[in-house]
Amino acid sequence: MLGDTSEETQSLSKVFSFDRFPKSVKFAYLVSELAQMLNHHPVIQIDWDKVTIELHLYALGDSIYDFDLRSSILINQLYELVVEDDL
């Protein structure tokens, strides 16, 4: 699951680290494709060796929906795939 939560912004965020810029870009692209399929669009910030993902929550009150949790799990799985990929 994405790591940090913020009650003020109702979001989950995480910084994903990579050993090379092309992997950062590939990961950001795959997250964008996933977001388009799920219609759940995060904020994506690409740096040379890291990508920050901020997923704004569909929340009622202060609870996190199952949809948000599943989205964050899929993003983490994409990260594992990109890290293992030999570009």
Largest sheet, in brief, is:
4 strands, antiparallel
The H-level CATH homologous superfamily, spelled out, is Transcriptional coactivator/pterin dehydratase
Question: What is the chains' assembly state?
Answer: single chain
Q: Can you give the mean pLDDT? A: 84
Q: Helix coverage percent of residues?
A: 40-55%
Low-confidence stretches: none
What is the CATH third-level topology name?
Gyrase A, domain 2
CATH architect. name? 2-Layer Sandwich
CATH C-level name: Alpha Beta
Distance linking N and C termini:
25 Å
Proportion of strand residues: 15-25%
Report the structural category.
alpha+beta
Rg, Å, rounded: 13 Å
Shape: globular
Order of helices and strands: EEHEEH
Strand order of the largest sheet: 1-2-4-3
